[in-house]
Amino acid sequence: MSSLPRVLSKTLAPALCSVLLSACSTVDYFAHLAKGEYGVLSARRPLDAVLADPATDPKLKARLQLAQQARAFASDKLDLPRNGSYTLYADVGRPYVAWNVFATPEFSLQAVTHCFIIAGCVGYQGYFDKPRAEARAKELEAQGYDTYVGGVPAYSTLGWFDDPILNTMMRWDDDLLDGTIFHELAHQKNYVKNDTAFNESYATFVEEEGVRQWRASRGLPPGEDLGERRQQDFTRLVLGARERLAALYASGQPAAQMRAAKQTEIERLRADYRSLRDTQWQGYNGYDAWMDAPINNAKLLPFGLYHKWVPAFAALYEQQGRDWPRFFAAVKQLIHDKPEARTAALEKLAGPATAGGAP
Q: Which terminus of the chain faces fewer neighbouring Cβ atoms within 10 Å, N or C?
């Protein structure tokens, strides 16, 4: 399990949507995304060729062989799409395949959104070039926004292209690598515009349940969940800080007073983290770098999206007799519902599990 917060490990980037100009895209931005996506697609090699190449590093070969088996399991046992995605490998020559720019007003936790014809509206803007992402963040900062630039090791084009396994995914352990394949294929199976929490919670459930079944098929015990528990602890801390900041921003205090109170809440978050780290976590410091770096509204944005509705999808899976085709059909029905009805159905499925905005 990655030591970074899960939401920072994988983010769905709208690279696919660069194929079609959106209302908020400039021609220059479109050209950049098209060039970046072409670069990723051009770097792809069939897994069989990579595995047969004597120049391939033995450790990489072993990882890719297991990933290849997981890819077959995804279609054979999890009813996920059987296509060319994740049957290829691409080394893009950088630590992240893309970078997302998040932005919010100084006294708001509402993201500046960007709308795409196919993917709908998302609360970030993706770039294949880090300096370009950082330049965009500075432009937004100059306009008074809080900004944050986060690296993206993997993303889905929602089945429009055969997505490869990337060198940027090799930093993960086997469960996270294989689970990411399940996660991204789940996006190809079902996706709804303008509802990131639904999309990511659904794909996260498929990933987590898929990994449980994948491990069991190989006679392995359930995976170590210590890293997952730490991640959930960390996410709860961040969500708590977000709730307090939201209440502050709704208070109507003068800007200078609100600005000082905002910094006080950020320092409280850091203090709460240090207490958690030094007691329950027994000194584990895997999140120190994130916490020690600057924190603002934009940096807090992604948290909670990946797990908000996971209990609801787990209940739906049980309701459908743990049958994957029936489960996916039920998810598709939820997608066809109106947003209000969909949220009500998820709340009913989840019961008290989502009370208080649990991650």
A: N
- Distance of alpha carbon 328 from alpha carbon 337, whole angstroms: 15
Question: Binning pLDDT at 50, 70 and 90, where does residue 3 land?
Answer: very low
How far are the Cα atoms of 24, 28, 271, 289 from residue 137, in angstroms, in the given order?
16, 16, 27, 20
Residue 215 exposed, middle or buried by CB count within 10 Å (0-12, 13-18, 19+): middle
What's the pTM value of the predicted model, to 2 decimals?
Answer: 0.85
Token reading at 224:
């170590």
In this structure, which amino acid lies at residue 146?
D
The string of DSSP letters for 24-79 reads T--HHHHHHHHHHHHHHHHTEEEHHHHHH-TTS-HHHHHHHHHHHHHHHHHHHHS-
- Widest CA span in the chain: 66
Model confidence pLDDT, tens digit, residues 264-285: 999 999 999 999 999 999 999 9
d(CA 334, CA 341): 8
Residues with Cβ within 8 Å of 179's Cβ and at least 6 positions away in sequence, in order, are: 207, 208, 210, 211
140-186 confidence digits (pLDDT tens): 999 999 999 999 998 888 888 999 999 999 988 899 999 999 999 99
- Buried/exposed 101-115: b ≥16 CB within 10 Å, e otherwise: bbbbbebebebbebb
Say if residue 231 is exposed, middle or buried (CB neighbours under 10 Å; 0-12, 13-18, 19+).
buried
How would you label 284-308 residue by residue, b for 16+ Cβ within 10 Å and e otherwise?
Answer: eebbeebbeeebbbbbbbbbbbbbb
Strands (E), 119-194: 120-122, 125-127, 146-152, 165-166
